[in-house]
Structure formats: structure tokens, C-alpha cells
Amino acid sequence: MARKTTAGEPTLFFPALAEFYASVSDLWYPMIRIMAGAFLFTHGWMKLHSGVAGVAGFMAKSGFAPPTAFAYAAIFLETVGAVCIAAGLFTRFFAAALAIEFACIAWLYSAQGFGKMEPVLIWGILFFAIALRGGGPYSLDRVIGKEL
């Protein structure tokens, strides 16, 4: 078990790793942001290729009205929004919109039990956290010097 220092931080079992950890410590957030965008893009790509009519049919069956508008929104957010999150462009806007989308999906799945709702909640919380953090150090938001 690691021993706590006076500042409350644990000490390393292998102190020789301290320099390595310090050199890569700012990479954790871009990795999470990029992978969240990339993984979500696969869902959007499938929706895009199945067509708006198919997605709208699912939306209508799920109780979302107007279904075509929700279908376009889901396709747009899960493709363009996902790419923007991965690139760190307009990150807060798209992550917040996706957090809202996943909150709506979680509400829809709530009647089917926590097991169905759990992955949707994880995605929603992830995008909410990204919305709070923004693009981060390695992002196009940082390059342009502006965030929404």
C-alpha cells in the first residue's frame, strides 16, 4: 500500500516512474475526448447509412415527436458533433447537446430497467463532463483561442 505524504498525496511504489508520469499527465483528457468522439461517430455513421426514414421510424416508435426532426438531430450530433468533440472544436456546445440527447434516451429507457439505461447514463455523464471541461490542451478550441 502506498504511504501518504504530508500533503495527502500517495507516494509511488516505483519513484523512478515519477518523471514518466509527469511527462504524460496532460494526455489523459485528450485521449478520453478523442475516443468518446470516435466511438460515438460509429453510432452516427450507422444511423447515417440506415437513412433518416429508418431512424425517424425508431424515433416515432419510441415516442419522440416530431420523429424526423429528432432523427436529423441524432444523426447530426452523432456524426458532426462526434467529429468536433474528437477534434476539440466547439467542444462544450456539442458535448452539452450530446449530454442532453443521452439524458432523453436514458429517460426513454428508464421504464426498461437500470440494465438498459446504464450504458446510456455512462455516455451522458461522459459528455456532460466533457462539456464542463471543454476542449482541453490539445484541441482546435485551444488553437483558435475561443470556446462556446
Strand elements, count: 0
Number of helices: 7
The unreliable regions are none
What percentage of amino acids are in beta strands?
under 5%
Mean pLDDT: 92
C-alpha-based Rg, rounded:
19 Å
Report the order of strands and helices.
Answer: HHHHHHH
Give the number of domains. 1
Gap between N and C termini, in Å?
43 Å
Judged by helices, strands and strand pairing, the structural class is mainly alpha
Shape: elongated
- Helix coverage percent: over 70%
- Biggest β-sheet, characterized? none
Descriptive report:
This protein is mostly helical and 148 residues long. The chain has one domain. It is built from seven helices and no strands. The model has no long low-confidence stretch (mean pLDDT 92).
Features:
elongated, mainly alpha, 148 residues
In short:
With 148 residues, the protein is an all-alpha fold. The chain contains 7 helices and no strands.
Write the topology of this structure.
Elements (H helix, E strand, L loop, with lengths): L17 H7 L3 H23 L1 H11 L4 H21 L3 H19 L4 H20 L6 H5 L4
Helix pairs in contact: 2-3, 2-4, 3-4, 4-5, 5-6
